[in-house]
């Protein structure tokens, strides 16, 4: 009996009887209650990216992806306002919210709610250079100008040095930057044996909060006991974890009660995953009974970026910088309307997507911005090209040349999110009359006696649907059976992709080598469709929001090797960096070819770890030469 007791004591010796006690545990809280996420990649995917970028560079990219950009980029609707007028209005809103020129008290511009921080914020803002070092505000232009080199390029000196500023990128004077700040240290009020009250949110909710959103009811996953309306709560993130069946899950039941001890769900996994502090707008019971509403009003954020909810509706549109640049090369939702504004709402843009809801989103955005030149269809991009007999009854029984003339009367055509077909003014300076055989503006003499079939179809739709948002359109979405080959002068393929360039990103484990290769195969099939829709002399623009070279440079290689009549051409404005040169050999022996030397400067690759501080993005522009 005594020997068993001695053995039990020996086994317990050296083991703590409580999960959190002693000074060491208290000191560790600074490491727990902070924001220091680390992206976990599939090992094979990580090896692939290290081969493409190098280990050090890819580590910087992974870190940058977990943080939001240091600024917000908004596009001014120049059909309704001017850049200077919008800046003046934003300054007035900022002054009303008590912001002035300091980003330390960055608020939600949409609600004019001023952040009440417990700790003095960084008054000079911060920016991280390519080596991960923080740069004071006075060095903004120096760092942003370098963009990976020692020589300052004036066109890189484009990001905000004040709270609100106009872009000085050539051709993008309708773009306004709003500076944010962070990361900020937050005092979560931890006391020995008394952890702060806490709300755990889903990963997608957290990513939205890092971009300036509030915590809404659907995003709340778990909450401390006895949380009442008005309580101060810490907000942490539940990120998916690997499961034994090779899937990923948070392994948490919504509504779980948190005790603030190590038996809580994902207790250790939430170390360094705290995104801010806020005020509970409902009791714990209310949060998990309600179906909608704000659960936590974020008052103290790790990253402080303005929200533009209901701000200057119709005059501005929040959009990342690479997407704005894409519109100039030729460009879903936001890009479609960007082209329409660049065309001064003249001609016709055909925007299509296989998703009913996405088509409705385009319609609503166009109506909000007051654009009338956008026609929408529900269409699978893999079926964009149809046989001539499939359209003969609906369009014309004339020859192909006659159809080309009619098709050219559409100044622009876009397949949103899948394939975008655009005939627009060349933003580099050449107008459509310089590159097309026929232009609507040059057909004024024919308008009195002849109306194009596109115009007739548009008028019939307006008569049938009546006035409304974008003449729409209610919940009506028209289907399309595709278009005849060589129907358009410009095509944008804004392909669905792995989206590994979007930020902030707190999870990346789902992508495998196989899934990345499948994305690339799907994009090649869409490109095969897009290339058939463009006339000789036309333009194809290809864009993605991923850092994966298999979906970017490898697609360019496929296009140039498969379609000898395609050529890469320079883009204006040129804001992104060069593409990747080289290749990668997979374990099955397949060699993925990327760009060849000399081609890298003809594409634009936006690196999230570069001083320009954008999302990861890629743009390639092809000209369609006559087939030989």
In short:
This protein is of the alpha+beta class and 628 residues long. The protein is built from 19 helices and 25 strands.
Secondary structure topology:
Blueprint lengths: L1 H11 L10 H5 L1 H4 L10 H11 L1 H11 L5 E6 L6 H14 L30 E2 L5 E2 L4 H7 L17 E3 L8 E5 L18 E5 H8 L4 E2 L3 E5 L7 E7 L2 E2 L5 E2 L6 E3 L15 E7 L3 H6 L4 E8 L14 E3 L2 H9 L4 H9 L6 E5 L2 H13 L5 E5 L9 H5 L7 H9 L11 E2 L10 H4 L8 H4 L5 H13 L22 E7 L18 H20 L1 E11 L8 H10 L3 E3 L14 E3 L5 E3 L9 E4 L10 E8 L4
Parallel strand pairs: 6-9, 8-12, 16-17, 19-20
Antiparallel strand pairs: 1-5, 1-15, 2-3, 4-5, 6-8, 7-14, 9-13, 10-11, 13-14, 18-19, 20-25, 21-25, 22-23, 24-25
Verbal overview:
The protein has 628 residues and is of the alpha+beta class. It is built from 19 helices and 25 strands. Helix 4 (43-53) crosses helix 5, helix 10 crosses helix 11 and helix 18 (513-532) packs across helix 19. The longest helix has 20 residues, at 513-532. It is globular and about 75 Å long. 43% of the residues are buried. Residues 488-625 form the SAM-dependent MTase RsmB/NOP-type domain. InterPro entries: MeTrfase_RsmB-F_NOP2_cat (IPR049560), MeTrfase_RsmB-F_NOP2_dom (IPR001678), PUA-like_sf (IPR015947), PUA_sf (IPR036974), RCMT (IPR023267), RsmB/NOL1/NOP2-like_CS (IPR018314), SAM-dependent_MTases_sf (IPR029063). It holds the Pfam family Methyltr_RsmB-F.
Keywords:
methyltransferase; globular; MeTrfase_RsmB-F_NOP2_dom; 18% strand; RNA-binding; PUA_sf; SAM-dependent_MTases_sf; 628 residues; 6-stranded mixed sheet; 7-stranded mixed sheet; alpha+beta
């Amino acid at each position: 009996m005594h020997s068993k007791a001695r053995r039990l004591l020996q086994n317990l010796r050296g083991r703590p009887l409580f999960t959190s006690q002693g000074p060491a545990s208290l000191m560790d809280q600074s490491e727990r209650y902070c924001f220091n996420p680390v992206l976990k990649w599939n090992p094979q995917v990580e090896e692939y990216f290290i081969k493409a970028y190098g280990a050090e560079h890819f580590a910087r990219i992974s870190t940058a992806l977990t943080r939001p950009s240091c600024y917000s980029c908004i596009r001014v609707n120049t059909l309704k306002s001017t850049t200077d007028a919008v800046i003046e209005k934003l300054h007035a809103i900022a002054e009303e919210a008590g912001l002035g020129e300091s980003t330390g008290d960055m608020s939600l511009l949409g609600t004019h709610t001023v952040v009440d921080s417990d700790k003095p914020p960084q008054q000079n803002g911060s920016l991280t250079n390519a080596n991960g070092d923080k740069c004071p505000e006075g060095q903004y232009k120096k760092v942003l100008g370098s963009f990976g080199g020692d020589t300052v390029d004036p066109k890189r000196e484009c990001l905000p040095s004040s709270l609100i500023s106009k872009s000085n990128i050539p051709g993008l004077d309708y773009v306004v930057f709003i500076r944010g700040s962070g990361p900020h240290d937050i005092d979560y009020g931890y006391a020995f044996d008394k952890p702060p009250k806490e709300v755990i949110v889903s990963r997608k909710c957290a990513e939205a909060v890092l971009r300036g959103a509030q915590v809404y009811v659907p995003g709340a996953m778990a909450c401390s006991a006895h949380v009442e309306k008005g309580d101060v709560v810490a907000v942490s993130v539940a990120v998916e974890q690997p499961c034994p069946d090779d899937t990923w899950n948070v392994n948490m039941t919504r509504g779980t009660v948190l005790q603030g001890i190590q038996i809580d769900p994902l207790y250790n996994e939430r170390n360094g995953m705290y995104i801010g502090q806020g005020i509970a707008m409902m009791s714990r019971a209310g949060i998990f009974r309600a179906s909608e509403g704000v659960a936590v009003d974020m008052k103290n954020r790790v990253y402080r970026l303005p929200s533009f909810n209901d701000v200057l509706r119709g005059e501005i549109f929040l959009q990342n910088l690479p997407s704005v640049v894409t519109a100039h090369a030729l460009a879903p939702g936001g890009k479609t309307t960007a082209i329409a504004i660049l065309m001064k709402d003249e001609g016709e843009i055909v925007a299509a997507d296989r998703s009913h809801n996405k088509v409705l989103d385009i319609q609503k955005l166009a109506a909000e911005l007051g654009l009338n030149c956008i026609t929408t269809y529900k269409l699978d991009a893999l079926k964009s090209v149809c046989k001539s007999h499939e359209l003969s009854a609906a369009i014309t029984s004339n020859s192909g040349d006659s159809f080309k003339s009619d098709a050219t009367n559409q100044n622009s055509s876009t397949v949103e999110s899948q394939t975008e077909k655009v005939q627009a003014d060349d933003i580099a300076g050449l107008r459509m009359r310089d590159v097309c055989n026929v232009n609507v503006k040059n057909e004024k003499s024919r308008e009195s006696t002849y109306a194009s079939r596109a115009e007739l179809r548009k008028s019939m739709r307006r008569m049938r649907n009546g006035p409304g948002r974008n003449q729409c359109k209610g919940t009506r979405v028209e289907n399309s059976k595709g278009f005849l080959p060589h129907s358009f002068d410009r095509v944008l393929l804004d392909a669905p992709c792995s989206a590994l360039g979007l930020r902030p990103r707190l999870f990346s484990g789902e992508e495998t080598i196989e899934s990345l290769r499948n994305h690339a195969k799907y994009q090649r099939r869409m490109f095969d469709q897009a290339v058939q829709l463009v006339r000789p002399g036309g333009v194809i623009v290809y864009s993605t929001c991923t850092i994966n070279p298999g979906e970017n440079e490898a697609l360019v290689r496929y296009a140039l090797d498969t379609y000898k009549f395609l050529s890469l051409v320079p883009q204006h404005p040129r804001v992104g960096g060069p593409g990747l040169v080289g290749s990668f050999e997979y374990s099955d022996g397949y060699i993925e070819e990327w760009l060849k030397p000399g081609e890298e400067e003809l594409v634009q690759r936006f690196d999230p770890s570069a001083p320009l501080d954008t999302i990861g993005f890629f743009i390639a522009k092809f000209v369609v030469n006559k087939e030989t």
